[in-house]
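Our consortium's second objective concerns turning raw sequence data into structural hypotheses that experimental partners can test. To show how far this objective has progressed, the report includes one record in full. It was chosen at random from the queue rather than selected for favorable results. The single chain below, 99 residues long, was entered without modification.
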Amino acid sequence: MIDETTLREGLRLVVDPEIDCNIVDLGLIYGIAIDGTRVTVTMTLTTPGCPMHESIAWGVKCALLNLEGVEDVEVDVVWDPAWTSARMSDYGRIRTGIC
C-alpha cells in the first residue's frame, strides 16, 4: 500500500537543476492524491516560464513509477496559487541560501 509519506520521500529525488534543490523542499508540491495504484501530483514551478518544466514533470513521473505499488502517475502543473519562497522547508532555505 502506498502512502503520501513514501511518495514525498520518492519526490525528494527530483531536483530542480537550476536551483540544485529537490522539489519537495522547494515547496513545489501542492498536493498528492492516491487512487489505488494511480497517483496524481499537483505541483508548480518557481516561475511560469521555467525552461525545465517538461524535465521536472518527467522526473516526478519516473521517481514515483519506481516506487512499489505505483502503476500510473499524472502530473498537474498549476500556477495558482503562485509559488513563493515562504513554501520552502528549512532545509530548502539553507540549501538555496534563502533565509
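The partners drew two points from this record. The mean pLDDT is 95. The chain has one domain: 4-83. Both points have been shared with the crystallography group to help prioritize constructs.
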